[in-house]
Amino acid sequence: MEAIREQLQTADWPMSSIHQEMFSSDLDEDSSGKINSRTTDFINFGESGVIPIEATSFHLKPIQSLLAEARSFLQQYYYELGVPDAFTERWNEVSESIQKTGTYEHTLDELTYGARLAWRNSTRCIGRYFWQHLHIRDMRHLETEEEMFNSVIEHIRLGTNNGDLRAILTVFRPGSPQIRIWNGQLILYAGYRQPDGSIIGDPNNVELTEAVIEMGWQGAGSQFDVLPLVIQIEGKDPRWFEYPDNLILEVPLTHPDFSWFEELNLQWFAMPAVAGMALDLGGIQYTAAPSNGFYMGTEIGSLNLSDKRRYNILPLVADMMGLDRSEERTLWRDKALVEVNIAVLHSFRQNGVRMLDHHALSDYFMRFNEDEEKLGRTVYGHWPWLVPPLSSSTSDLWHYKKWKNKILKPNYFYQSNPWTKQNAQPANAPSGCPFHKSEEKKE
Fold first, then answer.
1. DSSP 3-state assignment of 343?
2. Which residue, of 96, 247, 337, 436, has the greatest Cβ tally within 10 A?
3. In this predicted model, which residue has the larger pLDDT, 422 or 275?
4. How many Å separate Cα 129 from the centre of its chain?
5. Share of the chain above pLDDT 90, in %
């Protein structure tokens, strides 16, 4: 690897930038920001011969050729660093390791860039403007469930950052015996099925709630009980862990104009942290790699709280507003929905928790699109997932339909529920992006 350092120095890279990972959100209170783009010219894939591996599904599939996927990623990695000549020595190391052992190990720099690149490739994510700001915690050395849980606690503390949320990904070891986190997110609210078929709490998490109750966990039975974290190492029984008191930052919801809104006793946790997706990087699949970003307001206001399949609070809010619900044409749902979103944005700001509204994040995505096009890189996107669920036609994304939904690796992929044998998307899995989570959306 010394030759790689020499290549970087030959390319006039400062020593301070070699083997050093820095994190900055570069986002202020007014949601303005900038990305730290490298000045190195990026080489067009077509000219360089780098051909990224294309996946056929958002669900994790077995690796077809480890050598091909490793080579593709490493070529792209060194080309984008601006030191393509360094590829050959590293490839000789990797290919020899694969031939001798059947696998290879990423360096921390490769893991860091690869995880960020996987975010950049996430076609369902509206928050990709911030892909270069992802901070990586390398926890591949941990072996026991207790060690992993303690690392998750530290992840939550670092990511929450007293409300000034930071994008963090914690990577546990890949390979066998496989590690899985049962929870679709590190933080989830329980859903309790009642005898009459109704549900107290989050209907999205009923199956997981019933599974952990069967293991011996007992919740309070309220609307907002935080579920324990379940970690399973292949060949062993799953283990659940209760979070320490005061670890999870939760935001009570109030409204700037309606004093009665506070009496609804609504709340939501501050940090979205996806835990059920796998990082598929260079032929190595990290099945336990929890990550967090920050919320877009509509993810809570329009989806988690207002969706009929979730907390379904719109009828209650409409009644409190005195709206006519006798027929849909009065647009009572629309009026109530806007006020719920106003409450969410207001409450997060009042409590000093980082959040962006859907207009601001749409603008950031268009800036991401412009930045990528300037670098000669094609932007791919799954349009129904990028368009905000509120006031969609007012977003530039609504009118910009030229993106193709091409799934490039490295990327983040859905995994089947650990407690079922079905190869299907988990009921409590995030739909879309590991950093800006949208739980229910159009296909």
1. helix
2. 436
3. 275
4. 13
5. 74
